[in-house]
C-alpha cells in the first residue's frame, strides 16, 4: 500500500510518500508544496495544483493528514483548516481513504513518546526509512512521520474522516 502523509501549513505543506510491503517500509518521495502568494486564493490554488501533480505522479492509495489544532491566533487556525480542506478534497477526488492523526499520536507512534521534539522525530524517520538525510523543512519529516504513523496503526484504525468507495 502506498500512503501519503500530509503536514498542512499556510505557506508550506509537507508531504511524504511511503510504500508498505507487509511491514517493510520504503521511502518513495517527499517535499514541500510552497506558495508565497500574497493573495490567499492564489496561494490555495498553487497548493492545490502542486498537490494534484504529486497525486498524479505517485498515485498513493491512502491519505493520512495531521489533525487540526488551535493556535492563539484564530485566523491562523482558520487558514490551516482551509488548507486541510484542500488536502481532503484532493484526496476525495482521487478516491482515497483519509484518516487524521494528532501531533501527539504521530510522535508516540514514531518515537514512542508523545512529547518528542522535531529533532527526535526527524532522527527516527531517518532510521525507520533507512535514509541518511531528509531534505527540506521539518514539514517534510513531519509528513513522513504521519505516513509512518498510519502504517503502524492502520489495522486498528476506526476513525476515518471519509470512507470512499
Number of strands: 6
- SSE sequence, one letter per element: EEEHEHEHHHE
The neighbouring-strand order within the major sheet is 3-2-1-4-5-6
**Secondary structure: helix percent:** 40-55%
Secondary-structure-based class equals: alpha/beta
Largest sheet: 6 strands, mixed
Number of domains: 1
Cofactor: Mg(2+)
Main location: cytoplasm
Protein name: Crossover junction endodeoxyribonuclease RuvC
Pfam families: RuvC
Could you explain how this protein is built, in words?
The protein is of the alpha/beta class and 165 residues long. It has a single domain (2-161), classed as Ribonuclease H-like superfamily/Ribonuclease H (Nucleotidyltransferase, domain 5, 2-Layer Sandwich), CATH 3.30.420. 45% of the residues lie in helices and 24% in strands. The protein is built from five helices and six strands; from the N terminus they run E-E-E-H-E-H-E-H-H-H-E. The protein has helices at 40-58, 74-93, 103-110, 118-129, 138-153; strands at residues 2-7, 12-21, 24-34, 62-66, 97-101, 160-162. It has a six-stranded mixed beta sheet. Helix 1 packs parallel to helix 2 (74-93), helix 3 packs across helix 5 and helix 4 crosses helix 5. The longest helix has 20 residues, at 74-93. Belongs to the RuvC family.
Amino acid at each position: 500500500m502506498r500512503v501519503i502523509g500530509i503536514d498542512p501549513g499556510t505557506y508550506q505543506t509537507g508531504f511524504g510518500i511511503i510504500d508498505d510491503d507487509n511491514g517493510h517500509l520504503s521511502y518513495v518521495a517527499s517535499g514541500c508544496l510552497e506558495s508565497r502568494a500574497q493573495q490567499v486564493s492564489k496561494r490555495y490554488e498553487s497548493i492545490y495544483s502542486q498537490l494534484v501533480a504529486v497525486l498524479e505522479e505517485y498515485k498513493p492509495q491512502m491519505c493520512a493528514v495531521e489533525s487540526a489544532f488551535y493556535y492563539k491566533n484564530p485566523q491562523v487556525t482558520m487558514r490551516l483548516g482551509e488548507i486541510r480542506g484542500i488536502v481532503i478534497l484532493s484526496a476525495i477526488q482521487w478516491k482515497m481513504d483519509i484518516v487524521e492523526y494528532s501531533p501527539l499520536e504521530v510522535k508516540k507512534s514514531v518515537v514512542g513518546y508523545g512529547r518528542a521534539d522535531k529533532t527526535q522525530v526527524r532522527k527516527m524517520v531517518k532510521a525507520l526509512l533507512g535514509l541518511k538525510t531528509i531534505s527540506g523543512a521539518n514539514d517534510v519529516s513531519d509528513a513522513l512521520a504521519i505516513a509512518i504513523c498510519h502504517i503502524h496503526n492502520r489495522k486498528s484504525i476506526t476513525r476515518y474522516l471519509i470512507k470512499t468507495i
